[in-house]
Structure formats: structure tokens, C-alpha cells
Amino acid sequence: MRPYLSIVIVALALAALASLAHSNTLANSLVTATIIALAGYGWNLLGGYGGQYSFGHAAFFGAAAYVDAVAQARYGVNAYAAFVLATAAAALVGVVIGYLSFRAGLRGSYFALITLAFAEVMRVLANAAGITGGAAGTLIRLAPSPSHFQFVGRQPYLWIVLVLVTLAMIATRAVERSRFGAYLVAVRENEAAARALGVDALRVKLQAIVISAALTGLAGALYAQYFLFVDASIAFGPWISIEALAAPIVGGLGTVFGPLVGALALDGFGEAAHAVAGRTPGIELALYGALLVLVVAVARDGLQGLAVRFFAARRAGAA
Amino acid sequence: MTAPLLVLEGLTKRFGGLTAIDGVSLTLPCGGVTGIIGPNGAGKTTLFSLIAGSERANTGRVLFDGGDVTRLPANARAVRGIGRTFQITQPFAGMSVRENVAVGAYLRHARRNDALARAAEIAERVGLGGRLDAPAASLTVSARKRLEVARALATEPKLLLLDEILAGLNPSEVREFAPVVRALSAQGITVMMIEHVMHAVMNLCAHLYVLAEGRLIAQGPPAEVTRDPLVIESYLGKGAAARLARGGGHG
Ligand SMILES: Nc1ncnc2c1ncn2[C@@H]1O[C@H](COP(=O)(O)OP(=O)(O)O)[C@@H](O)[C@H]1O
Ligand SMILES: [Mg+2]
């Protein structure tokens, strides 16, 4: 139980935060931040642990968001069934993109570019196709009742995301402590050496991208369910690809708490920037860029690493 | 006569215009320590890569333990029982010694506790017992070589390919390593080692192969092979054997 104790503590702290978030603005901000954290957990598994940096996690987020919305709006599928279907669809997109790019041996910047290209192609297609509602997007009919996975007020959504984020943390820890996790990190550190030790690198990367896509898909489906609307630039736009990678990088790449810490920090940072700079369009992106540069320059292991080193230094100082 | 463990048939490997391995055939029996020597650039490391599957041969076959593994990737060959170390050490830099070795141990022990326990045991055996939690990136040259051996050993290979694990070690470290290699052999692992440290080779190997410019030019017991004029010339240049025989060796 020890390895999961810290997760329990963080989950309880989140719960306390959520129960204090009475104002709609705060709850809204927290829902968005934790949905991004969830997407970040997906990215972190493949990028942080596996070393495969995707610039196109929007492909998974968007596939799930669209499937969730279209299944309900067009085909009258039950909201919960649509949610499960949406996550499965994201995983499937993960299999396809993973197979095509890893099979071809794409790594590093080539992998980043191909994932970006997939996401962009999907954005263009979603914007043009009939089934997705084209440029107008797809609305999920408002029906606020738990049986439709819709709730009055923000708080229920917040609890749902928090449960999912907690599950993502548990899943991440479980991966860390498994053979699969050891193989994944080995492939990141040195693929040739890993293969010589019997690691099927292609298979490990495929497994990682499927889990990664499913986690980010959960975030996409939840996003659609929360806003009851998707269009191409929300679902497949570069914004979510950037958020999904910025959160773990800022919080701590390849760590259990990195995506959560990073998403909350970025959210707080963005709010503060708005307060200071007003609603200048694009201010978040400029700030993200600045913050990423800062993190890469002074704290490669992110805020979590910074905190660990800070406390280690204090302990050493006290002793 | 028992079946051979490894058979190479007419292996050839080209890198662009360069033929690094040129029609190498050999038959390795089960057990024992076999040496591979030869000048730099002779193709020794490439030969190991072809056996372990890190590189694919252009022509020829690799038969291992009764099966044809020529088309199998490196990971599948590791499953069959071929382990290798890398001459240029390839640690998983971000992991501890224990975690590095556990990656190898996971091949036969799927459960984390088993793999970690096994890793600790093997690290101990190669003299890394005191550094289990050290980051691999912090290790000295000698410790990195030990880590290479430990990782490969953790896959529980039938054939272990050691690529210059003694290079860069000081004489006392070399002396410490000899019993480790002998113990592996005693335990039933067939060992093939590429080595330049001649007294270690003479000490450990019952049989030597000599590779020069991608070809096997001699083989036999170490004492004989090192007297072979062809071998001396491959190291020292044409006419060297005759000069040595005349007692000069200079000029
Ligand atoms: N991946 C590679 N690409 C191109 N040339 C290579 C490669 N690997 C080895 N070589 C060349 O093949 C020859 C044999 O190299 P190698 O097997 O490393 O020799 P040795 O281990 O005997 O010193 C050398 O000329 C080397 O430059
Ligand atoms: Mg070599």
C-alpha cells in the first residue's frame, strides 16, 4: 500500500479543494484544469515514461470528444455508453497512429511531426465532414439529469474529473511498478540496449500509445460532456496538444504527480496573467512558451522535481 | 558428440561499400570460454551484433540451439538465450543499477519483486552489490562494464557474448574479473569473449578465433594461434613474422 499512500493524500487534498470550490468560476476553472491534467496523464505515459514526444494528442482528445457528442446527438446513444465508446475510439486511433509511425521506426522530431500531422488532418476532416456537423460543430442536447450524465452546477463534474484523475495517478503508479513500465523506460533510455535484453520495443511503444490515447480520450469525452459542444478547433486544435504536453513538462516529466501539478500551476499562472495583463488574446500561449523555456532552463524535472530538491536541501540543512 | 550451440554459415555483412564481415563460418560447442581476437576494425563487434541480432546479415545463416534465428530480431534472440554486452557501454542512464539489471531479469521473472531480487543477486555476483541504488550515469568505467555483464546475465542466457569487458580496466580490476567469467562458465553458460588483454585471453579461453578484415584467419588453442605467422602479420603488418623469427622485430 505504501507506494499509493501519497496518491491517497493528494486525492484527499483535491477533494478538500473541490468541496471548498463553491463559486462557479472557481469550480469551472478547476474542472478545465483537471480535464487538462487528465489529458496530460495520457501524454505523460507515452512522452514522460516512454520518451516518445507527441505533438498531436489532440487526435485522441478530439476523436473521443466527437464520438461522445455525435453518438448522443445523432444516434441517440446513452450518454454513458457514448462515453465508453468515445474512450475506446481514442484508443483505436492510438493503435492506428502508433502502428503507422512506430512500425516505420519514426522517433524524436519525426514522431512529433507525424502526430501533429495526424491531428491536423483530423481537424480539417472534422471541419468538412457531414457526420461531425462540419464547421457548425455538434451540440449535445441539454438534459440535466444524472441518467444523461448531465448535472446542474459545476461541482458534480469536478468530482467526476477528480475521481478520474485519481485513477490516472493510480494507473501511472501501477505502470511504474510493472514490467511494462520498466520496459517502457528502458526503451526511452536506450532502445538498442533494451532490445538486446529481450524487450520488444515496438510492442511496448504500441501498448503505451494505446493507454496514453485512452487516458487523453477520457479527457476529451469529459470535455464534450461538460460543455455539451464540440467543433473541429476545440476537439482537434493544437491547443490541447500543447496543454497535454505542457502540464507534465511543467509539473514533472515521467512522474506520478507531474501532470496534475503542472495543469494546476499553469491554470493559476494563466489566471494571474489575465488579472495583470487583461484579456489580451493569445496571452496564455505567450506565457506557456515563457514558462516552458523557464522550466527547461532551471528545472528539467519540473515543479515536482524542484520541490523534491528543495525539501531534500532543507532536510540536509536541518540535519 | 553433443549438438553445437551456435553455428554460423557464410555470414557476410556490408556497410555501404565496406565488407565488415566476409563469409564467416564457425561452429561453437556447448560450454567453455571461447575468445575472439583481431586488430581494431577487424569486424569483431559486428560479428557479435550479427549473432545477437542487433544487425542483420546480408547473406548467411545463424543457427542457435537447434533453430534458425537468422530472421529473428534481437529481442527474440534474447528470449532464445543469446545475451550480449556492448563494447561502448549502453546503460539506462536514468535508472539505478538495480533497475538496469532488473530490465534483464524481467525476461524470465515477470513479477517485480522476483525481478528486483534477482537483479540484486546478479549485481552482487559481478561486484556491484554495494552500488545497487546508484544512478547508472554515476558509475565509473569499470562499474559500467560490470553493469553490462550483469544486465546480460540477468536474461539467463545460454550463450553470453562479452565485448571487450576488460578494456579500460586497470590490472587489478582485470584480475578481479577473471574468476567472474570462470564462474559463469562453470555454471553452464557458454561464453564468447572479444578481448585485447592477451594474458586474460590466454588464461581464460580454451579456444581462440582470429578475425582480420572480416575473415576468420586462424583458430585453435591460444598458445598455437598466437604463434601463427598469419596472425602475427595481421597485427603487426606484412613481413613482421619473418622479422620476429630473425630475432629483430625492429624496423
Ligand atoms: N554501423 C556501422 N556503419 C558503418 N560502418 C560500420 C558500422 N559498424 C562497424 N562499421 C565498420 O565495420 C568495421 C568493423 O567494425 P567493428 O566490428 O566495430 O570492428 P572491431 O570490433 O573488430 O574493432 C570497421 O571498419 C567499422 O568502421
Ligand atoms: Mg569492437
Walkthrough of the structure:
The complex is a heterodimer of chains A (319) and B (251). Chain A has 319 residues and is mainly α. Chain A is built from 14 helices and two strands; from the N terminus they run αααααβααααβααααα. Chain A has helices at 2-20, 24-49, 58-75, 79-103, 108-128, 155-176, 179-189, 191-196, 201-227, 232-236, 238-251, 258-277, 283-298, 302-318; strands at residues 138-139, 229-230. The two termini of chain A are 29 Å apart. Chain B is an alpha/beta fold and 251 residues long. In chain B, 37% of the residues lie in helices and 24% in strands. Chain B has helices spanning 44-52, 74-80, 97-105, 112-125, 141-154, 171-186, 198-204, 222-225, 229-236, 240-245, and strands spanning 6-15, 18-28, 33-37, 59-64, 67-68, 82-84, 159-163, 190-194, 207-212, 215-220. In chain B, α3 packs across α4 (112-125). Chain B starts with 5 loop residues before the first strand and ends in a 6-residue tail after the last helix. Chains A and B meet through α7 and α8 of A and α2, α3 and α5 of B. The complex binds adenosine-5'-diphosphate (ADP) and magnesium ion.
Main features:
heterodimer; A: 319 residues; mainly alpha; two-stranded antiparallel sheet; 14 helices; 77% helix; B: 251 residues; alpha/beta; Rossmann fold; 6-stranded mixed sheet; 4-stranded antiparallel sheet; 37% helix; 24% strand; globular; binds adenosine-5'-diphosphate; binds magnesium ion
Computed CA radius of gyration of chain A, to the nearest angstrom: 19 Å
Give the distinct bound molecules: adenosine-5'-diphosphate, magnesium ion
The biggest sheet of chain A, with number of strands, parallel, antiparallel or mixed sense and barrel status, is: 2 strands, antiparallel
Say which CATH homologous superfamily of one domain in chain B is assigned. P-loop containing nucleotide triphosphate hydrolases
Strand order of the largest sheet of chain B: 6-7-8-3-9-10
Largest sheet of chain B: 6 strands, mixed
Rg measurement of chain B, Å: 19 Å
**Helix share, percent of chain B:** 25-40%
Order of helices and strands of chain A: HHHHHEHHHHEHHHHH
Distance between the termini of chain A: 29 Å
Distance between the termini of chain B: 48 Å
User: What is the residue-mean pLDDT of chain A, rounded to a whole number?
Assistant: 91
Strand count of chain B:
10
Reading off the top of the CATH hierarchy, the class of one domain in chain B is best stated as Alpha Beta
Strand content of chain B: 15-25%
